[in-house]
Amino acid sequence: xxxxxxxxxxxxxxxxxxxxxxxxxxxxxxxxxxxxxxxxxxxxxxxxxxxxxxxxxxxxxxxxxxxxxxxxxxxxxxxxxxxxxxxxxxxxxxxxxxxxxxxxxxxxxxxxxxxxxxxxxxxxxxxxxxxxxxxxxxxxxxxxxxxxxxxxxxxxxxxxxxxxxxxxxxxxxxxxxxxxxxxxxxxxxxxxxxxxxxxxxxxxxxxxxxxxxxxxxxxxxxxxxxxxxxxxxxxxxxxxxxxxxxxxxxxxxxxxxxxxxxxxxxxxxxxxxxxxxxxxxxxxxxxxxxxxxxxxxxxxxxxxxxxxxxxxxxxxxxxxxxxxxxxxxxxxxxxxxxxxxxxxxxxxxxxxxxxxxxxxxxxxxxxxxxxxxxxxxxxxxxxxxxxxxxxxxxxxxxxxxxxxxxxxxxxxxxxxxxxxxxxxxxxxxxxxxxxxxxxxxxxxxxxxxxxxxxxxxxxxxxxxxxxxxxxxxxxxxxxxxxxxxxxxxxxxxxxxxxxxxxxxxxxxxxxxxxxxxxxxxxxxxxxxxxxxxxxxxxxx
Length: 540
Ligand SMILES: [Zn+2]
What we know:
about 25% helix; alpha+beta; disordered N terminus; Immunoglobulin-like
């Protein structure tokens, strides 16, 4: 439980604030401001910082300026960003975002600083974000620029001894009118066309001297300055492109079949962004498409005494807290993070001996984000996920072993309170969980809630049966439902074990007892094996 850690984090946040007031923040990070322009309007600036040449933006402020909504879990160093029809979860210090339940790589790590979460500017340029907003988003000269999806852009020039051509990408039907304004100037007007950016280029040629393509109010205007030999010109559609051609005598043929290879691909959408990032992201997205798990196959062999799983089942053990996050603490006891790790190691050894593939989200005293924990489980393709914690309560009499599985509603107020603490986000009540969470969990929810409740039952029974633990296991209320963040987003049956109350002197003595710790690990392990047998996932 995390009452203690919450206080600690508040204290830390306060000290960080104090440090920032006493010493310039720029000494800690190269911090600054980045402007936001939306449809040509200056929308002010947001805090930003630099990391290895990449600009990171204050995720909350930027999202709000773009019209999205956020849920900030400052203590968990996590932010959820939602735009119409899409959501993303970003956690420090991961160089990735979970976008619509799929992993997308980012060019730099998400950074938590004070109460802010900074994300690489590229996050806001992801195709998913641009699509959700139906906007073109670019990052130029330390400004995030949001524009309408552009429809016209200069792509290429072609300079030949007998003619010049200018090529333009256009999307959809664009009408235009062209006319010679004077001897050397031709103007083409595109009514109600939004340009991605203004372009001007000097060809310094005798056919075309230069041109500018610029926004004039709601219209786009192409202005071409002709050279001394630019006597004939034509502006037409050729093979899907718009082409301005100019020659002295005969204009080049309309067909561009023999023209040199130029970028025939639409230059829009992606070209100005970092292509590699998005290529990776798309590959990743494909790779992480959730796999539909086959229904457990009944094992035909019976009476076989040894475990013969069809394939090695994978179990992830998640020792709660770690590193800078000690979890619950009490005088005269190891910290929660240490107790959790010790018992998790016993559980790990027990399950390894049984022939399972087992992974721990941490095997030493390090900090792992909540999202990082579920991600590890999903990457490992875990069949089961067991989070190990130690409880605490203000009421000194509170004691006993409990096992939780997630649900939409906590079974009682107390369970909800436990969940709130474990979520390290006291200030966010369940009501604040937005549709994005529901979306994220929607697949796993129905599929695994039932499984998780069964798993909880087996663990409860075997911890109860295991001798030498000495912590009460109450048959009527040892199983609880709550909305733990760590269990959300895990694509497998998942439970959170609260081994006992560090705040109870009786439980505390047992939690710190080496023999009882080993028994606890074994009891949980036996419960897991019993569940898998009962579900036909391993032989009886
Ligand atoms: Zn805990």
